[in-house]
């Protein structure tokens, strides 16, 4: 059910995100900016069922549009070119990105009115929590 994710979310807390960015290959300057910004995360669905996820901050705004279970080309906020697929499993929105022999997954879940975002690459896990704006 994508509907529970629809809306504007504000970053509330972030744990271990610097180590996660380092593990995916983000340079120091970009990581420093990434640790400072508190982006809004906006999810919407259009009439044709196309889902939009937008990360908006004073530093950078990125947006992806996709359909569940369909692979697409994504350019991430740190300019990685990935093959991405987003699925819905047990109420979790799971985004899998593959590039240059690497893979990361981003699991988004709504719990107690908050959106928890678990970013995983190898044995590095970052947790970010968003609240509805």
Give a concise summary:
This protein has 133 residues and is mainly beta.
Structure description:
There is one protein chain. This protein is 13% helix and 56% strand. A ten-stranded antiparallel sheet has the order 4-3-2-1-10-9-8-7-6-5. α1 (17-24) runs antiparallel to α2 (28-36). It has 133 residues and is mainly β. β6 (81-89) and β7 (92-99) form a beta hairpin. The model has no long low-confidence stretch (mean pLDDT 95). It has helices at residues 17-24, 28-36; strands spanning 7-15, 40-45, 51-56, 61-66, 72-75, 81-89, 92-99, 102-111, 114-121, 124-132. The protein has one domain (2-132): Calycin beta-barrel core domain (Lipocalin, Beta Barrel), CATH 2.40.128. The chain has two helices and ten strands; from the N terminus they run βααβββββββββ.
Q: Which secondary structure elements does this structure contain, and how are they paired or packed?
A:
Blueprint: E1 7-15, H1 17-24, H2 28-36, E2 40-45, E3 51-56, E4 61-66, E5 72-75, E6 81-89, E7 92-99, E8 102-111, E9 114-121, E10 124-132
Antiparallel strand pairs: 1-2, 1-10, 2-3, 3-4, 5-6, 6-7, 7-8, 8-9, 9-10
Helix pairs in contact: 1-2
């Amino acid at each position: 059910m994508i509907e529970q994710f629809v809306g504007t979310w504000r970053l509330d807390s972030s744990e271990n995100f610097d180590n996660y960015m380092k593990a995916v290959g983000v340079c120091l300057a970009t990581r420093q900016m990434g640790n400072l910004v508190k982006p809004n995360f906006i999810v919407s669905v259009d009439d044709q069922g196309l889902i939009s996820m937008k990360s908006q901050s004073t530093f950078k705004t990125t947006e992806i549009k996709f359909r569940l279970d369909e692979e697409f080309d994504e350019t991430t906020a740190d300019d990685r070119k990935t093959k991405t697929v987003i699925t819905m499993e047990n109420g979790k929105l799971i985004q899998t990105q593959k590039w240059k022999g690497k893979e990361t997954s981003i699991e988004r879940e709504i719990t107690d009115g908050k959106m928890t975002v678990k970013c995983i690459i190898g044995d590095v896990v970052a947790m970010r929590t968003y609240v509805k704006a």
